[in-house]
Design goal:
The chain has 154 residues and is mainly alpha-helical. Helix content is 58%, strand content 0%.
């Protein structure tokens, strides 16, 4: 099994486990809760976030890059699926964010922790989250604005 195949299996496993963990929350709001959960996991103990020990161990991977990929999936699915951003805009924002990572200028959310290096699995998860979010939005009958103010990253 190639490293890419192993990463794909692992990321899909984590995404599925997080969906089950928050399965009592209706879609598409569930994905916003998971996005928030993952932000807390990845920033455990910082600015009031709970320690990593409060989260079920089966939802956590020791590789922060893997957790970033899962977080990116749910962030994109939340934002598109709930009509916060249109898919075209989120793809554009992801491109700018990712290019900023490559150039070393993407600001950190947590000043004590560097951004994870850009990986193919993270980019694939962003796109999968957008695609799944588009399906969620369509299923809900809601719509997204044509364009929305981007989030503040600092």
């Amino acid at each position: 099994m190639s490293p890419v195949e192993a990463q794909t299996i692992r990321v899909n496993d984590l995404i599925a486990k997080w969906k089950v963990y928050r399965g009592s929350i209706a879609e598409p709001g569930r994905y916003c809760q998971i996005k928030t959960d993952l932000y807390q996991v990845r920033n455990a103990g910082w600015e009031g976030n709970p320690p990593i020990s409060v989260w079920p161990a089966h939802l956590i991977d020791a590789d922060d890059g893997m957790m970033a990929a899962v977080e990116h999936y749910f962030l994109c699915r939340c934002w598109v699926g709930n009509g916060i951003y249109p898919a075209w805009q989120l793809r554009t924002m992801n491109f700018v964010y990712d290019m900023g990572k490559l150039a070393g200028v993407t600001p950190r959310h947590n000043p004590n922790k560097p951004t994870t290096p850009l990986t193919a699995i993270q980019m694939a998860c962003q796109e999968a989250g957008i695609r799944d979010g588009e399906a969620d939005l369509k299923k809900s009958g809601k719509s997204a604005p044509w364009v929305a103010m981007p989030p503040k990253y600092y």
